[in-house]
From TrEMBL:
GO terms for molecular function: 2-aminoadipate transaminase activity; pyridoxal phosphate binding. The lineage of its organism: Eukaryota, Sar, Stramenopiles, Bigyra, Labyrinthulomycetes. InterPro entries: Aminotransferase_I/II_large, PyrdxlP-dep_Trfase, PyrdxlP-dep_Trfase_major, PyrdxlP-dep_Trfase_small. This is Aminotransferase class I/classII large domain-containing protein. SUPFAM superfamilies: PLP-dependent transferases (SSF53383). Residues 26-428 form the Aminotransferase class I/classII large domain. Gene3D superfamilies: Aspartate Aminotransferase, domain 1, Type I PLP-dependent aspartate aminotransferase-like (Major domain). It comes from the Eukaryota.
Length: 436
């Protein structure tokens, strides 16, 4: 089975703005092939344990090269002991979520809410499945994308929820799931100040922050935005932050390879002691070896990432130009990196908010050959149901964001070359004008 959001729409007449995976132009197949050949010519022959289970934390060579690569990119010191190899972000989140949920249940066996996880509204639309399958219960907080529009943003929501739980005797949440940089779906990013405040809150109230961060290296025209864990080093809450990165967005999804960054104690306690990691050892040793080859010598990985930044940056530049030409630039904030933009549709000719998930809107998109993601698809429904003990202002804030999400769409340019971006915005403008 394939999701419409992670596989290509093969109809050349449809612009796939809903697809969240890279098109062939972004896949460095030659580089991957050459790195694989070098791996077999050198390390595989020299290291007889390459195709064994491997160290749970990953091969030393991968962790050393990954630490150096990220230190160079982020201009922040990261040590090999803070890095673990994983089989992509989703797999690592599954391991970490299960472990943190069990830890919280053991620490607070009798308190209500010991399986709760705070997650943003809106957020990555497959997050609910990952969290629920790990035995967690999602609880909504305002998204990164709404933090700069009022005082009622992500940090306010987290602090209000954590303080409220403590007041009524609820357990702290098992963790807080966030996408701090180039957010999916809003494209927004947290400030350094907000990142440090979140870490302080996690420390104060005894919870963790799990950062889903596959887009940080994809900054347009500037230095990459560091992941949350390197930012909080040396600050309060350092041991409470787990940053998870992936090569799926910067190299190729099929590698199923990524990394976990955390304080050494936290990495051992939360990731390496996960049941599936203990049982299976390193989760993808061969892909890690291939990526290690890409990071050696002249570091082909730097070139691959730079190429992805340039391509995506040009696509969003075209997107911005066409949105302005269609007089739609006032309803979107073009991101400074990543894959996604969030468009507010506004009201129809009768003064009612346009519902992007309505049959009429979806039919018009289909009629004009443009595929989008309705904003409400990015809202975890179970996370928007609250009990009476919750702060009223927080509940009302979430309700407002849910309504806004119905009036919004997510756009992704990863699968759309520049000409398709141009054509897609023009088609989308026709759809929106139909309702205006």
């Amino acid at each position: 089975m394939h999701s419409e959001y992670t596989s290509f729409q093969l109809d050349e007449n449809v612009v796939p703005f809903a697809v969240g995976c890279p098109d062939p132009m972004l896949l460095p197949l030659d580089v991957i092939q050459q790195a694989t050949m070098r791996a077999f010519e050198g390390p595989v022959k020299q290291e007889p344990f390459t195709f064994q289970y491997g160290k749970m934390i990953g091969a030393d060579s991968f962790r050393e090269h990954m630490a150096k690569f990220l230190s160079d990119e982020y201009q922040m010191k990261i040590g090999p002991g803070q890095v673990a190899l994983c089989a992509g972000a989703s797999a690592a989140i599954g391991v970490v979520a299960q472990k943190l949920r069990r830890m919280n249940e053991e620490a607070f066996p009798l308190e209500k809410g010991n399986r709760d996880v705070l997650c943003e509204v809106p957020t990555y639309f497959h997050a609910e499945k990952m969290l629920v399958d790990a035995g967690c219960k999602p609880v909504g907080i305002p998204s990164t994308g709404y933090s700069d529009e009022s005082a009622m943003g992500l940090v306010w929501g987290v602090e209000t929820e954590l303080a409220g739980r403590q007041k009524v005797g609820k357990a702290p949440p098992a963790f807080i799931y966030v996408i701090p940089t180039f957010h999916n779906p809003t494209g927004a990013s947290l400030s350094t100040r907000d990142v440090l405040e979140l870490a302080c809150l996690a420390e104060k109230y005894g919870t963790y922050i799990v950062c889903d961060e596959p887009y940080n290296l994809l900054t347009f025209g500037a230095n990459p935005m560091p992941q949350m864990m390197p930012i909080v080093q040396g600050h309060a809450g350092e041991e409470r932050v787990i940053s998870i990165g992936s090569f799926s967005k910067i190299v190729a999804p099929g590698l199923r390879c990524g990394w976990v960054l955390a304080n050494e104690t936290t990495l051992e306690r939360v990731y390496c002691s996960g049941g599936s990691v203990i049982s299976g050892g390193c989760t993808n040793p061969f892909a890690g070896l291939v990526v290690t080859e890409m990071m050696k010598g002249p570091c082909e990985l730097k070139t691959v990432v730079a190429n992805a930044r340039e391509i995506l940056g040009k696509r969003f530049s075209v997107f911005e130009t066409e949105m302005k030409a269609a007089n739609l630039d006032n309803c979107v904030r073009v991101p400074s990196g990543g894959y996604f933009a969030w468009i507010r549709l506004g009201n129809d000719r009768d003064g009612n908010p346009i519902d992007s998930n309505s049959q009429e809107f979806k039919s018009k998109c289909s009629e004009h050959g443009v595929q989008i993601t309705p904003g409400i698809k990015c809202v975890i429904e179970s996370a928007t149901t609250f009990d009476s003990s919750r702060d009223h202002s927080l509940s009302k804030c979430i309700e407002k964001i849910v309504d806004s999400s119905r009036n919004s769409i997510r756009i992704c340019v990863a699968a759309t070359p520049e000409q398709q971006v141009r054509m897609g915005v023009q088609r989308l403008a026709k759809v929106i004008r139909h309702f205006k």
